[in-house]
């Protein structure tokens, strides 16, 4: 287990700040849980468990991170961090892959992939939802791509692609 601290700052007024420290317990995912996690990815996206053989997963109450196997040799006791490696997915009713995960492993997916045309891509990267989409995918989280580029994750329901691209990654204007 790894204990990490995250500092949250809330500004009460200009002269005074309230600082609270949130202690997060991170732990490496055991082989049983890794099998469950990779099974979900295989069932939803067709990404096989072998894709993740060279990686470790780390979790806390809300999130999963993925990291190389070399991570196990690092002493984390004195590190102050929210996570280790790359944020991989968020926990919920179903697993929600991050944009990073889709961009790194999306090319391994075999199903629940929505391919956008040029106009849809522009709208999607601007943070807009795509409606009236006729896609042959299951309702729920899907992988969104344009040509050979994996753009991220989106929520598909009844012909609408609900944008899930983080605001910081949205493109205001495409040239």
List the helices and strands and how they pair.
Layout: E1 2-11, E2 17-28, H1 31-45, E3 55-59, E4 63-68, E5 86-90, E6 96-97, H2 99-105, E7 113-115, H3 118-125, E8 140-146, E9 149-157, E10 160-163
Parallel strand pairs: 7-8
Antiparallel strand pairs: 1-2, 2-3, 3-4, 4-5, 5-6, 8-9, 9-10
Q: Say what oligomer this is.
A: single chain
The biggest beta sheet reads: 6 strands, antiparallel
What ranges have pLDDT less than 50 throughout 5 or more consecutive residues?
Answer: 1-15, 18-23
Number of helices: 3
Give the H and E element order: EEHEEEEHEHEEE
Overall shape: globular
Task: State the helical fraction.
Answer: 10-25%
Cα-based radius of gyration, to the nearest Å: 18 Å
Overall tally of domains: 2
Strand content: 35-45%
Intertermini distance: 47 Å
Structural class by helix and strand composition:
alpha+beta
Biggest sheet strand line-up: 1-2-3-4-5-6
Mean pLDDT: 84
Number of strands: 10
Describe what this molecule looks like in 3D.
- The protein is α+β, with helices and mostly antiparallel strands.
- The protein folds into 2 domains: 111 residues, no CATH class; 64 residues, Archaeosine Trna-guanine Transglycosylase, Chain: A, domain 4.
- The protein has 3 helices and 10 strands; from the N terminus they run ββαββββαβαβββ.
- The strands form 2 sheets. It has a 6-stranded antiparallel sheet.
- Strand 9 and strand 10 form a beta hairpin.
- The longest helix is centred in the first third of the chain and has 15 residues.
- It starts with a strand and ends in a 12-residue tail after the last strand.
- The N terminus is likely disordered.
């Amino acid at each position: 287990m790894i204990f990490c601290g995250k500092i949250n700052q809330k500004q009460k007024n200009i002269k005074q700040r309230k600082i609270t420290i949130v202690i997060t317990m991170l732990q490496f995912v055991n082989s049983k849980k890794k099998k469950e996690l990779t099974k979900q990815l295989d069932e939803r996206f067709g990404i096989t468990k072998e894709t993740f053989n060279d990686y470790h997963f780390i979790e806390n109450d809300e999130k999963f991170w993925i990291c190389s196997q070399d991570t196990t040799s690092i002493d984390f006791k004195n590190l102050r961090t929210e996570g280790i490696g790359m944020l991989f997915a968020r926990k919920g009713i179903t697993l929600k892959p991050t944009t990073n995960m889709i961009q790194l492993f999306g090319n391994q997916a075999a199903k629940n992939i929505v391919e956008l045309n040029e106009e849809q891509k522009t709208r999607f990267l601007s943070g807009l939802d795509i409606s009236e989409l006729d896609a042959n995918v299951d309702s729920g989280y899907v992988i969104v791509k344009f040509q050979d580029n994996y753009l991220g994750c989106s929520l598909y329901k009844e012909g609408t692609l609900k944008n899930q691209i983080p605001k910081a990654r949205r493109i205001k204007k495409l040239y």
